[in-house]
Design goal:
The protein is of the alpha+beta class. Helices cover 31% and strands 19% of the residues. A hairpin with a 4-residue loop joins strand 8 and strand 9. 44% of the residues are buried. InterPro entries: PP2C, PPM-type-like_dom_sf, PPM-type_phosphatase-like_dom.
Length: 628
């Protein structure tokens, strides 16, 4: 198997929130007295329209903004910070911070993380190893660690994303295990690779640079294909399980029909699939569900709802990072360039939606020319689904006739109780779970030795709807630099990507955090008037030129979420978080973020110091005993 026992070394830790807002910076923001200033004791009321107002009833709902203390509780209740406490050089990952803030009730976002010790040693390299390990090198470990991080963005329910949180990493790990052992189909691939010169293999298959280590697990193209195969395999299980159950019931129907013919040759009492199914699955809400009914019903739920998925896989021994994306969640990397003394960013995934021209071209090529104009309508698949790749979403994968039979058999109330097939459904499937997989090599083996990978931000589209890639990277970079209090977004951007000096942008290298006190510049009279107008409603974003970020959270994911919701515009944050479901979905989506920090002298997690979670506080804190 890919992994060994986790319990011997896997530690879960939690950073408890220490909200120490910079009072001087807060006072600078409050200098422009706003009509709706917030303090811990005050609230502001505002109204929002009700989407489905009842006839004769109110058309608006009054919302009371949260206090600062309530905002902090909402933002920190799901945050976790985990320090990877491993021997030096064993793992590329130093720490990862996670958090989720719901808009839907219940939340449809999910996440999962697993780190295991590699139990297959790296095959000998045809070229000599580096003379000395770089900060990102796992040369100090014979095998090195394998790290898996996933975020799932569900839609039309939480069933698919929940199942992915339980199974996606395991499916990928099982497929990678075959690659490591060169078993099954990979045995033939290994034979073919060993029989070819490296240059010829790379020309045919692709892969890493010349002189790359041997072994299929060190071949990026093979690993990428294995990850994609695992994604497809899991989606096939999700979508096909209800179909296989339906086949069993149809066989039962045929058997019942042949044994229930009346003496006169007429049909018995149960002459249709629907009637047979509902003798097993009674539609009455008061009926006692049988175990069989419960199993079949639960199997169809993950197929009918859907979910995007974003997976980051890190092989510490190989110094390889893979990012697999199905849907519109996004991964963005932050690199520190020592030569130029500034940060650089790279998007490691591309949003797969109907607004992505490459996706539109791909989908049109997969269907008859007669459907060319209908495949994507208004930026959505058949005019309905925004992501073009997703798990589940069987409405876009089953044909019309099959959908009707499945709904009649397994749903109380039959096909009338759920949404029918999308309009224009002619040649399914229209949606695939096959991911786009990117590969990067870090450390001395990378193509850019002066650029060091410091962190990766993984987040569902709820974050990216409110924040650009540049803003997210600058916020993490500024946090690592020790900035506290408030800073104008334009100033933070300049200091991150075009720094005045290296010390401002470099992460703190000592155990004591480097603190950079940065306050908001005094606003001009015109800016003050512009800002006052922008504060006439708590949900107002305000002018972009005056957008200001707040640095107060120790957890990097919480830090990103707070600033996506409004940052130093505290009344906007308090207003957005106060709107209850389902109305909140019109203003913000579920947000799930995972920030992965890589090992280096500057980012070793010495500050803040995580506090170990006891099993009483969090069931996940218990060491995992089983193998992956």
């Amino acid at each position: 198997m890919v992994g060994a026992h986790l319990g011997s070394w896997y530690y879960w830790s939690n950073i408890r929130p220490r909200h120490q807002a910079n009072k001087a910076a807060a006072a600078a923001l409050a200098a422009n007295s706003a009509p709706f200033s917030l303090t811990a004791e005050s609230r502001t009321s505002f109204s929002i329209p009700i989407r489905q107002a009842q006839a004769g009833g109110p058309t608006n709902k009054v919302i009371n903004t949260l206090t600062n203390a309530e905002v902090d509780r909402r933002l920190t209740e799901n945050q976790r910070s985990t320090r990877v406490d491993r021997p030096q050089g064993a793992c590329l990952v130093a720490r990862y911070d996670t958090n989720s803030v719901a808009s839907n009730d219940p939340i449809e976002d999910k996440r999962a993380e697993v780190i295991v010790e590699r139990d297959h040693a790296v095959a000998a390299s045809p070229s000599p190893p580096p003379a000395s390990p770089t900060p990102n090198t796992a040369a100090g470990s014979a095998n090195g660690d394998l790290c898996f991080f996933a975020v799932m963005d569900g839609h039309a329910g939480f069933h698919t994303s929940t199942l992915l949180s339980q199974k996606l990493i395991a499916f990928v790990a099982l497929e990678l295990d075959k690659v490591f052992r060169e078993a099954g189909d990979y045995a033939e691939i290994a034979k073919a690779k060993s029989a070819m010169p490296n240059k010829l293999w790379r020309a045919i298959v692709g892969g890493g640079p010349a002189g790359s280590t041997s072994g299929l697990d060190g071949d990026p193209e093979v690993v990428k294909r294995a990850i994609a195969k695992a994604f497809r395999g899991l989606d096939k299980e999700i979508v096909n399980t209800p179909v296989e159950l339906l086949k069993e019931y149809e066989l039962s129907l045929a058997s019942t029909s042949s044994n229930s013919v009346s003496p006169e040759g007429g049909a018995g009492n149960a002459r249709s699939l629907s009637s047979l199914a509902h003798t097993i699955f009674p539609s009455s809400t008061n009926a006692t569900f049988t175990t069989t009914q419960k199993s079949a019903y639960e199997s169809i739920l993950p197929a009918m709802s859907g979910s995007c998925a974003l997976l980051t896989y890190i092989d510490s021994a190989r110094q390889d990072v893979y990012v697999a994306c199905t849907g519109d969640s996004r991964a963005v990397a932050g690199y520190w360039d020592e030569a130029s003394g500034k940060w650089e960013l790279e998007a490691l995934s591309v949003d797969q939606t109907g607004r992505n021209l490459d996706e539109v071209k791909r989908m049109r090529a997969e269907h008859p020319p007669s459907e060319s104009e209908n495949v994507i309508q208004r930026g959505r698949v058949l005019g309905g689904l925004e992501p073009t790749r997703a798990f589940g979403d069987a409405r876009y994968k089953w044909d019309r006739e099959l959908q009707g039979r499945l709904y009649d058999a397994f749903l109380p109330g039959g096909r009338a109780s759920t949404r029918g097939p999308p309009r224009g459904l002619e040649t399914p499937p229209y949606v695939t779970a096959t991911p786009a997989v990117e590969w990067r090599r870090v450390g001395e083996t990378s193509s850019h030795p002066n650029k060091e990978l410091r962190f990766i931000i993984m987040a569902t589209d709820g974050l990216w709807d409110m924040m650009s890639n540049e803003e997210a990277v600058s916020l993490v970079a500024g946090h690592l630099a020790g900035i506290k209090g408030t800073i104008r977004s334009s100033e933070l951007h300049r200091n991150t990507f075009q720094p005045v000096d290296k010390l401002h942008s470099l992460p703190a290298a000592s155990s004591e955090a480097q603190t950079v006190s940065t306050s908001v510049k005094t606003a001009t009279s015109d800016e003050q008037r512009e800002l006052a107008v922008s504060k006439q409603h708590p949900l107002s974003k305000g002018p972009e030129t005056l957008r200001t970020f707040q640095f107060q959270d120790d957890n990097l994911s919480t830090h990103l979420i707070r600033n996506a919701l409004g940052g130093a515009n505290q009344q906007r944050v308090a207003g957005l978080l106060a709107i209850p479901a389902p109305e909140s979905r019109r203003y913000r989506d579920d947000i799930t973020v995972n920030v992965i920090l890589f090992n280096s002298p500057a980012t070793t997690p010495t500050q803040p110091k995580p506090t170990t979670i006891s099993s009483v506080e969090d069931p996940q804190s218990s060491p995992i005993k089983s193998q992956l």
